[in-house]
Backbone:
């Protein structure tokens, strides 16, 4: 589609350290991303700046240094560990005479390689098209562009306008298909809620060991590898938890610091499994030096998708890589499990995780009486769906007096949905 330089498998990596903490990236993480994409690094260039250069991002002198290294190593692509503007990409490509890829484009390429299911492929294509829509200018050079003045008028729609229209139409088509898939997922979720089956969602930084833990718990054959973004497509499996009964365990895509917004938007449907979960298992690579930063990055994404209020249990994985760590449960001030230390690869501490799940998901039954006025009758159907109504009477004012018996988590969920109004109707 584009008349741009072909990208190959030999890459020059560029990493710039900025003084602003929020703009900093990790060079080691870039190496892991490049390795996950199947690209060979033939050189690295690093530097320091206070702010990005408007034309080349890295400064004129550093850009010329990159061009010299590309020429010497015969590299086919330059990969930046940062998000570049379309203009910066074009300027660098013109200077270095080879393809330039930024961090977002690299992650999108990895996602495109990993997507297996129909939904996953649609989500990746949607993210790619949104990313591409800002990079159409100068993609084509062989077709007319409209100009003003006699003898200079173009024949009609320019190629740029055609490309933009085709992209918009394709994005609309994908969104319709994803909406259909989302409705099917929603039906499955409603059925589980009616059967009162709790959902536990695995979240965590990419390559923290979520899929290995998922396979260990469920005896599944989900693809797991020591690479970033090995898992893209959400997988659901049924597990049995003592004193709780059946539960659904969901394996989801891993998070990463500064996860591109297009990806978060595209994977909203997939991440709904996380947003609707009863408990989050936040898997952490406890052998990683950046453990604190990784936990913070996951919290940022959870906040972005509206899942920050869901109860979570920290799972410190890979204790086999530490010298003095042993499987154990750390508890909070109330005595509830807060952290579980285990090794999914070494099969250590899995029984402690199930013990913690039993304690965290153990059902607390709430019994109360509500006097619902006619204007709030819509909540009746919600209570019937949950099979929570023990008896119903009507008083002189036309209110429905309901005797309810339901699980604590369902009551809290309804309270949140009603913005606390249901609490006003409780009869003391």
Residues:
């Amino acid at each position: 589609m584009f008349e741009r330089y072909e990208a190959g498998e030999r890459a020059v990596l560029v990493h710039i350290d900025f003084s602003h903490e929020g703009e900093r990236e990790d060079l080691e993480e870039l190496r892991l991303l490049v390795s996950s994409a199947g690209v060979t690094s033939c050189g690295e260039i690093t530097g320091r700046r206070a702010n990005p250069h408007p034309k080349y991002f890295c400064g004129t002198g550093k850009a010329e240094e990159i061009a010299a290294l590309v020429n010497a190593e015969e590299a086919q692509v330059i990969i930046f560990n940062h998000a570049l503007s379309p203009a910066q990409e074009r300027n660098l490509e013109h200077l270095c005479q080879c393809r330039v890829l930024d961090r977002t484009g690299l992650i999108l390429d990895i996602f495109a390689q990993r997507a297996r299911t129909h939904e996953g492929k649609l989500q990746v294509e949607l993210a790619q098209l949104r990313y591409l829509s800002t990079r159409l200018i100068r993609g084509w050079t062989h077709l007319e562009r409209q100009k003003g003045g006699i003898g200079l008028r173009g024949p009609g729609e320019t190629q740029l306008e055609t490309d933009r229209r085709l992209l918009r139409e394709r994005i609309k088509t994908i969104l319709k298909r994803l909406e259909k898939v989302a409705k099917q997922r929603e039906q499955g979720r409603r059925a589980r809620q009616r059967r009162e089956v709790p959902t536990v969602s695995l979240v965590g930084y990419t390559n923290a060991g979520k899929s290995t833990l998922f396979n260990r718990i469920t005896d599944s054959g989900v693809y797991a590898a020591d690479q970033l973004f090995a898992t893209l497509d959400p997988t659901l499996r049924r597990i049995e938890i003592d004193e709780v009964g059946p539960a659904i365990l969901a394996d989801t895509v891993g998070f990463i610091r500064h996860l591109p917004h297009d990806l978060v938007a595209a994977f909203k449907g997939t991440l709904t499994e996380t947003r609707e979960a009863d408990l989050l298992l936040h898997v952490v690579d406890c052998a990683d030096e950046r453990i604190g930063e990784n936990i913070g990055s996951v919290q940022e994404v959870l906040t972005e998708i509206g899942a920050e209020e869901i109860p979570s249990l920290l799972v410190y994985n890979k204790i086999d890589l530490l010298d003095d760590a042993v499987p154990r449960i750390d508890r909070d001030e109330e005595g509830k499990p807060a952290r579980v230390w285990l090794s999914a690869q070494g099969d250590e501490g899995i029984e402690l995780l199930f013990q913690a799940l039993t304690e965290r998901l153990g059902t607390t039954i709430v019994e109360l009486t509500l006097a619902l006025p006619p204007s709030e009758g819509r909540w009746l159907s919600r209570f019937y769906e949950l099979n929570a109504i023990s008896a119903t009477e009507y008083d002189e004012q036309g209110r429905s007096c309901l005797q309810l018996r339901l699980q604590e988590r369902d009551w809290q969920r309804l309270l949140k949905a009603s913005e606390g109004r249901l609490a006003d109707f409780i009869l003391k």
User: Anything to note?
Assistant: Residues 4 and 190 are 47 Å apart (CA to CA).
